[in-house]
Design brief:
The protein is an alpha+beta fold. It has three domains: 19-84; 87-172, C2 domain (Immunoglobulin-like, Sandwich); 173-291, Immunoglobulins (Immunoglobulin-like, Sandwich). The chain contains five helices and 13 strands. The chain has helices spanning 13-57, 59-70, 77-83, 174-177, 181-188; strands at residues 89-90, 94-97, 102-111, 116-126, 129-139, 143-153, 161-171, 191-199, 210-218, 224-234, 239-250, 255-262, 271-277. A hairpin with a 2-residue loop joins strand 4 (116-126) and strand 5.
Length: 291
Protein backbone atom coordinates (compact mmCIF):
# COMPACT_ATOMS: atom_id res chain seq x y z
CA UNK A 1 0.00 0.00 0.00
CA UNK A 2 1.29 3.41 -0.92
CA UNK A 3 2.18 5.82 2.02
CA UNK A 4 0.70 9.34 1.71
CA UNK A 5 2.21 11.92 4.11
CA UNK A 6 -0.12 14.57 5.52
CA UNK A 7 0.29 18.05 4.13
CA UNK A 8 1.19 20.89 6.56
CA UNK A 9 -1.93 22.86 5.80
CA UNK A 10 -4.20 19.88 6.35
CA UNK A 11 -6.31 20.32 9.63
CA UNK A 12 -6.81 17.45 12.03
CA UNK A 13 -10.09 16.58 13.72
CA UNK A 14 -8.72 17.89 17.04
CA UNK A 15 -7.85 21.25 15.49
CA UNK A 16 -11.30 21.51 13.98
CA UNK A 17 -12.96 20.88 17.37
CA UNK A 18 -10.75 23.51 19.08
CA UNK A 19 -11.50 26.06 16.43
CA UNK A 20 -15.21 25.38 16.66
CA UNK A 21 -15.13 25.83 20.49
CA UNK A 22 -13.11 29.04 20.19
CA UNK A 23 -15.52 30.58 17.71
CA UNK A 24 -18.52 29.77 19.91
CA UNK A 25 -16.98 30.97 23.21
CA UNK A 26 -14.71 33.84 22.19
CA UNK A 27 -17.17 36.59 23.17
CA UNK A 28 -17.88 35.02 26.58
CA UNK A 29 -14.15 34.63 27.26
CA UNK A 30 -13.57 38.27 26.38
CA UNK A 31 -16.30 39.39 28.78
CA UNK A 32 -14.95 37.19 31.61
CA UNK A 33 -11.44 38.50 31.07
CA UNK A 34 -12.63 42.10 31.13
CA UNK A 35 -14.54 41.53 34.39
CA UNK A 36 -11.56 39.81 36.01
CA UNK A 37 -9.24 42.68 35.05
CA UNK A 38 -11.76 45.22 36.33
CA UNK A 39 -12.00 43.43 39.69
CA UNK A 40 -8.22 43.31 40.05
CA UNK A 41 -7.93 46.98 39.12
CA UNK A 42 -10.62 47.93 41.65
CA UNK A 43 -8.94 45.96 44.45
CA UNK A 44 -5.60 47.57 43.70
CA UNK A 45 -7.16 51.03 43.61
CA UNK A 46 -9.04 50.43 46.88
CA UNK A 47 -5.91 49.15 48.61
CA UNK A 48 -3.93 52.15 47.38
CA UNK A 49 -6.66 54.54 48.52
CA UNK A 50 -6.79 52.95 51.97
CA UNK A 51 -3.01 53.19 52.29
CA UNK A 52 -3.10 56.84 51.26
CA UNK A 53 -5.86 57.67 53.78
CA UNK A 54 -4.24 55.70 56.60
CA UNK A 55 -0.87 57.39 56.09
CA UNK A 56 -2.18 60.95 56.00
CA UNK A 57 -5.14 60.68 58.40
CA UNK A 58 -4.83 57.41 60.35
CA UNK A 59 -1.91 55.50 61.82
CA UNK A 60 0.55 57.46 59.74
CA UNK A 61 -0.06 60.59 61.84
CA UNK A 62 1.03 58.82 65.02
CA UNK A 63 3.94 57.11 63.24
CA UNK A 64 5.27 60.42 61.93
CA UNK A 65 4.99 61.96 65.39
CA UNK A 66 6.83 59.03 66.93
CA UNK A 67 9.48 59.27 64.24
CA UNK A 68 10.03 62.95 64.90
CA UNK A 69 10.30 62.34 68.64
CA UNK A 70 12.61 59.32 68.32
CA UNK A 71 14.81 61.28 65.96
CA UNK A 72 15.62 63.73 68.73
CA UNK A 73 18.60 63.06 71.01
CA UNK A 74 16.41 63.54 74.10
CA UNK A 75 12.64 63.00 74.28
CA UNK A 76 11.10 66.15 75.81
CA UNK A 77 9.55 65.63 79.22
CA UNK A 78 6.49 67.59 78.08
CA UNK A 79 5.83 65.04 75.30
CA UNK A 80 6.00 62.16 77.77
CA UNK A 81 3.72 63.96 80.23
CA UNK A 82 1.07 64.76 77.63
CA UNK A 83 0.88 61.21 76.28
CA UNK A 84 0.65 59.52 79.70
CA UNK A 85 -2.75 59.28 81.36
CA UNK A 86 -2.99 60.59 84.90
CA UNK A 87 -5.09 58.60 87.42
CA UNK A 88 -8.41 59.87 88.68
CA UNK A 89 -8.06 61.94 91.85
CA UNK A 90 -10.39 61.36 94.81
CA UNK A 91 -10.28 61.13 98.59
CA UNK A 92 -12.28 59.58 101.38
CA UNK A 93 -16.05 59.43 101.12
CA UNK A 94 -18.17 62.10 102.79
CA UNK A 95 -21.09 60.90 104.87
CA UNK A 96 -24.38 62.51 105.82
CA UNK A 97 -26.55 60.75 108.38
CA UNK A 98 -30.15 60.94 107.27
CA UNK A 99 -32.36 59.70 110.09
CA UNK A 100 -30.16 57.70 112.43
CA UNK A 101 -30.80 54.53 110.43
CA UNK A 102 -29.44 55.36 106.98
CA UNK A 103 -26.65 57.48 105.53
CA UNK A 104 -25.78 59.08 102.20
CA UNK A 105 -22.22 58.58 100.92
CA UNK A 106 -20.55 60.58 98.18
CA UNK A 107 -17.07 61.43 96.96
CA UNK A 108 -15.72 64.06 94.58
CA UNK A 109 -13.70 62.63 91.68
CA UNK A 110 -11.53 64.63 89.25
CA UNK A 111 -10.25 63.61 85.82
CA UNK A 112 -7.10 65.67 85.13
CA UNK A 113 -6.69 64.35 81.57
CA UNK A 114 -7.78 66.81 78.85
CA UNK A 115 -7.71 64.21 76.04
CA UNK A 116 -9.38 61.17 77.65
CA UNK A 117 -12.61 60.24 79.39
CA UNK A 118 -13.30 57.19 81.54
CA UNK A 119 -16.14 54.81 82.28
CA UNK A 120 -16.11 52.53 85.26
CA UNK A 121 -17.92 50.45 87.85
CA UNK A 122 -17.60 51.52 91.48
CA UNK A 123 -18.92 50.85 94.96
CA UNK A 124 -18.50 52.06 98.53
CA UNK A 125 -17.03 49.87 101.24
CA UNK A 126 -16.47 50.08 104.97
CA UNK A 127 -13.48 47.84 105.50
CA UNK A 128 -14.29 44.57 103.73
CA UNK A 129 -18.04 45.21 103.73
CA UNK A 130 -19.58 46.55 100.52
CA UNK A 131 -22.22 49.21 101.15
CA UNK A 132 -25.00 49.06 98.60
CA UNK A 133 -24.87 47.96 94.98
CA UNK A 134 -22.14 48.63 92.43
CA UNK A 135 -22.85 51.39 89.91
CA UNK A 136 -21.70 52.15 86.38
CA UNK A 137 -20.65 55.72 85.63
CA UNK A 138 -18.32 57.95 83.58
CA UNK A 139 -16.28 61.12 83.86
CA UNK A 140 -15.54 63.63 81.08
CA UNK A 141 -12.10 65.06 80.25
CA UNK A 142 -10.79 67.79 82.59
CA UNK A 143 -13.87 67.60 84.79
CA UNK A 144 -15.03 66.92 88.35
CA UNK A 145 -18.14 65.06 89.46
CA UNK A 146 -19.62 63.33 92.50
CA UNK A 147 -20.11 59.59 92.83
CA UNK A 148 -22.69 58.59 95.41
CA UNK A 149 -24.59 55.89 97.25
CA UNK A 150 -27.83 57.06 98.87
CA UNK A 151 -29.75 55.39 101.66
CA UNK A 152 -26.99 53.15 103.01
CA UNK A 153 -28.35 51.18 105.96
CA UNK A 154 -26.63 51.24 109.32
CA UNK A 155 -24.48 53.73 111.20
CA UNK A 156 -20.78 54.32 111.80
CA UNK A 157 -19.58 54.38 108.18
CA UNK A 158 -17.38 57.46 108.66
CA UNK A 159 -14.35 55.56 107.33
CA UNK A 160 -16.07 54.38 104.14
CA UNK A 161 -14.07 54.43 100.90
CA UNK A 162 -15.07 54.48 97.25
CA UNK A 163 -13.49 51.69 95.19
CA UNK A 164 -13.37 50.95 91.47
CA UNK A 165 -14.15 47.41 90.35
CA UNK A 166 -13.38 48.24 86.71
CA UNK A 167 -12.12 51.28 84.80
CA UNK A 168 -11.68 51.82 81.07
CA UNK A 169 -10.05 54.87 79.49
CA UNK A 170 -11.17 56.28 76.13
CA UNK A 171 -8.94 58.61 74.15
CA UNK A 172 -10.88 61.50 72.64
CA UNK A 173 -11.22 61.00 68.88
CA UNK A 174 -10.21 64.32 67.36
CA UNK A 175 -11.70 63.22 64.03
CA UNK A 176 -15.02 63.66 65.86
CA UNK A 177 -14.30 66.66 68.11
CA UNK A 178 -11.74 68.51 66.01
CA UNK A 179 -8.62 69.99 67.65
CA UNK A 180 -10.64 72.13 70.10
CA UNK A 181 -11.96 69.49 72.50
CA UNK A 182 -13.07 72.02 75.11
CA UNK A 183 -15.00 74.03 72.54
CA UNK A 184 -16.69 70.84 71.26
CA UNK A 185 -17.69 69.94 74.82
CA UNK A 186 -18.99 73.43 75.64
CA UNK A 187 -21.25 73.39 72.57
CA UNK A 188 -22.96 70.28 73.99
CA UNK A 189 -22.88 71.22 77.68
CA UNK A 190 -24.36 74.70 77.41
CA UNK A 191 -27.15 73.72 79.79
CA UNK A 192 -27.93 76.79 81.85
CA UNK A 193 -29.20 76.65 85.45
CA UNK A 194 -31.56 79.36 86.68
CA UNK A 195 -33.63 80.11 89.80
CA UNK A 196 -31.75 77.67 92.05
CA UNK A 197 -33.41 77.76 95.47
CA UNK A 198 -34.29 75.73 98.55
CA UNK A 199 -37.62 75.74 100.32
CA UNK A 200 -37.60 74.44 103.87
CA UNK A 201 -40.67 72.56 105.11
CA UNK A 202 -43.41 74.62 106.75
CA UNK A 203 -44.47 73.95 110.33
CA UNK A 204 -47.97 73.24 109.07
CA UNK A 205 -46.82 70.56 106.58
CA UNK A 206 -48.13 67.12 107.64
CA UNK A 207 -44.86 65.59 106.41
CA UNK A 208 -41.68 67.68 106.54
CA UNK A 209 -40.35 67.84 102.99
CA UNK A 210 -37.44 70.05 101.99
CA UNK A 211 -37.30 70.91 98.31
CA UNK A 212 -34.50 72.22 96.09
CA UNK A 213 -35.78 73.62 92.82
CA UNK A 214 -34.06 74.94 89.72
CA UNK A 215 -34.72 75.58 86.06
CA UNK A 216 -32.59 73.89 83.39
CA UNK A 217 -32.40 75.73 80.04
CA UNK A 218 -31.09 73.86 77.00
CA UNK A 219 -29.11 76.50 75.12
CA UNK A 220 -27.43 73.89 72.90
CA UNK A 221 -28.37 72.81 69.39
CA UNK A 222 -28.85 69.26 70.68
CA UNK A 223 -31.75 67.36 72.22
CA UNK A 224 -31.21 64.86 75.04
CA UNK A 225 -33.07 61.67 75.92
CA UNK A 226 -32.09 61.97 79.59
CA UNK A 227 -30.24 64.35 81.90
CA UNK A 228 -29.07 63.75 85.46
CA UNK A 229 -28.41 66.27 88.24
CA UNK A 230 -26.41 65.87 91.43
CA UNK A 231 -27.88 68.26 94.02
CA UNK A 232 -25.88 69.28 97.08
CA UNK A 233 -27.20 71.26 100.05
CA UNK A 234 -24.60 73.27 101.95
CA UNK A 235 -25.17 74.46 105.50
CA UNK A 236 -23.23 76.98 107.55
CA UNK A 237 -20.12 74.79 107.89
CA UNK A 238 -20.77 71.48 106.13
CA UNK A 239 -22.91 69.66 103.61
CA UNK A 240 -26.32 68.78 105.00
CA UNK A 241 -27.90 66.87 102.12
CA UNK A 242 -27.25 65.30 98.70
CA UNK A 243 -29.59 63.89 96.09
CA UNK A 244 -29.68 62.79 92.46
CA UNK A 245 -32.60 63.42 90.10
CA UNK A 246 -33.17 62.81 86.39
CA UNK A 247 -35.42 64.21 83.68
CA UNK A 248 -36.26 62.81 80.25
CA UNK A 249 -36.40 64.35 76.77
CA UNK A 250 -35.13 67.90 77.01
CA UNK A 251 -35.00 69.24 73.50
CA UNK A 252 -32.94 72.09 72.05
CA UNK A 253 -34.26 75.46 73.21
CA UNK A 254 -36.54 73.99 75.86
CA UNK A 255 -36.47 74.65 79.61
CA UNK A 256 -37.90 72.78 82.58
CA UNK A 257 -38.25 73.22 86.32
CA UNK A 258 -36.71 70.37 88.31
CA UNK A 259 -37.24 69.46 91.95
CA UNK A 260 -35.23 67.35 94.40
CA UNK A 261 -36.85 66.40 97.72
CA UNK A 262 -35.65 65.41 101.20
CA UNK A 263 -38.07 63.66 103.58
CA UNK A 264 -36.07 64.22 106.76
CA UNK A 265 -35.25 67.10 109.06
CA UNK A 266 -32.47 69.29 107.66
CA UNK A 267 -30.31 71.96 109.28
CA UNK A 268 -30.36 75.45 107.83
CA UNK A 269 -29.44 75.42 104.13
CA UNK A 270 -27.24 78.31 103.01
CA UNK A 271 -26.52 77.27 99.43
CA UNK A 272 -27.68 74.80 96.77
CA UNK A 273 -25.22 73.44 94.23
CA UNK A 274 -26.40 71.59 91.11
CA UNK A 275 -24.11 69.65 88.74
CA UNK A 276 -25.47 68.48 85.37
CA UNK A 277 -24.55 64.91 84.47
CA UNK A 278 -24.57 63.65 80.85
CA UNK A 279 -22.03 61.69 78.82
CA UNK A 280 -21.74 63.69 75.61
CA UNK A 281 -19.24 61.16 74.21
CA UNK A 282 -22.05 58.59 74.05
CA UNK A 283 -24.05 59.21 70.83
CA UNK A 284 -27.00 57.40 72.40
CA UNK A 285 -27.76 60.31 74.77
CA UNK A 286 -28.83 62.57 71.89
CA UNK A 287 -32.26 62.54 70.29
CA UNK A 288 -31.74 62.22 66.51
CA UNK A 289 -33.00 65.12 64.37
CA UNK A 290 -36.55 64.53 63.24
CA UNK A 291 -37.50 62.31 66.19
Amino acid sequence: MDFKPAREEQMTEKSLKWGYWWVNNRAQLARSGTIALAVVAFLMLAYGGYGFYDWFFGHGVAERQVGRVLGQPDIPTEVIRKTRLQPLAYGSADLIEVNGQTSDLYVEVTNPNPHAWAEFDYYFADGENQLGQSKHDFILPSSTKNLYQLGVKGEGHQGAQMRFSSLVWHRVDKHVTGPDIIGWMRARLNLRLEDVAFRAPELTDPVPVGRATFKIVNDTAYSFWRLGFFVRLIGSSRDVGVNYVTISELRAGQSRTVEASWFNDLPTVREVQVMTDVNIFDPGVFIPPGR
